[in-house]
Write a structure and sequence with these properties.
By secondary structure, the protein is of the alpha+beta class. It is built from 7 helices and 6 strands, in the order E-E-H-E-E-H-H-E-H-H-H-H-E. Helix content is about 45%, strand content about 15%.
Length: about 180
């Protein structure tokens, strides 16, 4: 079984007392937290209690802001890929799913990924929120503005690794409706 990062949508953030009432499945990605997940939780990012595990290793963020950032970067990446039908299909599936599952917040569950190393999972999530996610957002914003050609070229080369996650209404960890 692969370790995965899980991305959900909800109209409230998880807190110490309860998890959101209606949780929509967005995406899961094997063995990593991909660039797309980092960007989707890149606006209004905060650490929240996990909905799956005990430590405070969930990450919540503004849904509309993150979805807009990802859409803008996908458009910028696509301009350099010409007529790549596979990329076009990936973008169409991703954006349709994000529109269908829209909510107020994204909630990223990192437990399986941050527990793969011997590091403290809560410290790893704090580093994600304070360094990795802001760095990914800054790189993406610079690329969208036409100021980050080398980074953008590397993203285009391995776009599947960054954007081709499993988007579905049901993930390995799903919540009752």
């Amino acid at each position: 079984m692969a370790n995965r990062s899980y991305l959900y949508a909800a109209d409230s953030m998880p807190n110490e007392a309860e998890i959101p009432q209606q949780i929509r499945c967005i995406s899961e990605h094997n063995w990593d937290i991909p660039l797309a997940h980092k960007l989707l939780v890149g606006r209004g990012t905060t650490i929240v209690p996990s909905m799956i595990w005990n430590p405070p290793i969930g990450i919540a963020a503004d849904y509309a802001g993150g979805a807009s950032l990802l859409r803008d970067l996908l458009g910028t990446v696509g301009k350099g890929l010409g007529d790549d039908a596979e990329f076009g299909d990936c973008v169409a599936r991703t954006t349709a799913h994000l529109e269908k599952q829209a909510a107020k917040y994204f909630v990223l569950e990192t437990g399986e990924i941050v527990s793969m190393t011997g590091d403290d999972p809560a410290a790893s999530v704090r580093r994600l929120v304070s360094e990795d996610i802001p760095d990914a957002v800054a790189q993406a914003e610079a690329a969208i503005a036409g100021e980050n050609d080398d980074w953008l070229a590397s993203i285009r080369t391995d776009w599947q690794q960054h954007f081709a996650s499993f988007y579905s209404d049901a993930l390995y960890f799903s919540f009752p409706a």
